[in-house]
């Protein structure tokens, strides 16, 4: 399993807790953790960090993230992927999808894309 997730600072820590409870070998970091961008970091810098460290960003930022991704790609850069939480999605469904994605996806399957979860 080589998919790694960076959770946006606006997501509840319970996402990480539940992911790791169900899948202890999964790598799940949150904005603000040691070694990752601090809380308050602007999205373009977070995308660069995800690219440089090969983490898929998990966020609820539906409004501006498509613009930031387009700008990032226009600079000739790449991102391992962005997974945006759907409105009204239950945390259980999101956790199940994140575990499934990590288990069966190729490392570059979500590259340079925004996908919405649950799938």
Q: How would you characterize this protein structure?
A:
- The two termini are 20 Å apart.
- The protein has one domain (4-117).
- The protein is of the alpha/beta class and 119 residues long.
- The model has no long low-confidence stretch (mean pLDDT 94).
- It has a five-stranded parallel β-sheet with strand order 2-1-3-4-5, sandwiched between helices.
- Strand 1, helix 1 and strand 2 (27-30) form a beta-alpha-beta unit.
- It has helices at 14-22, 43-53, 65-74, 91-104; strands at 4-7, 27-30, 56-59, 82-85, 114-117.
- This is DUF5615 family PIN-like protein.
- InterPro entries: DUF5615.
- Residues 4-99 form the DUF5615 domain.
Topology:
Blueprint: E1 4-7, H1 14-22, E2 27-30, H2 43-53, E3 56-59, H3 65-74, E4 82-85, H4 91-104, E5 114-117
Parallel strand pairs: 1-2, 1-3, 3-4, 4-5
Helix pairs in contact: 1-4, 2-3
Write a concise synopsis of the structure shown:
The chain is of the alpha/beta class and 119 residues long. The protein has helices at residues 14-22, 43-53, 65-74, 91-104, and strands spanning 4-7, 27-30, 56-59, 82-85, 114-117. It has a 5-stranded parallel beta sheet, sandwiched between helices.
């Amino acid at each position: 399993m080589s998919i790694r997730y960076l959770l946006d600072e606006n997501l509840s820590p319970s996402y990480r807790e539940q992911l790791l409870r169900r899948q202890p070998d999964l790598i799940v970091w949150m904005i603000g953790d040691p070694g990752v961008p601090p809380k308050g970091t602007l999205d373009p810098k977070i995308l660069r960090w995800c690219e440089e460290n090969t983490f898929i960003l998990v966020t609820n930022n539906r409004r501006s993230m498509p613009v930031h991704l387009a700008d990032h790609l226009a600079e000739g850069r790449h991102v391992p992927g962005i997974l945006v939480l759907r409105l009204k999605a239950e945390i259980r469904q999101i956790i199940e999808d994140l575990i499934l994605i990590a288990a069966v996806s190729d490392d570059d399957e979500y590259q340079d894309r925004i996908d919405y979860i649950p799938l």
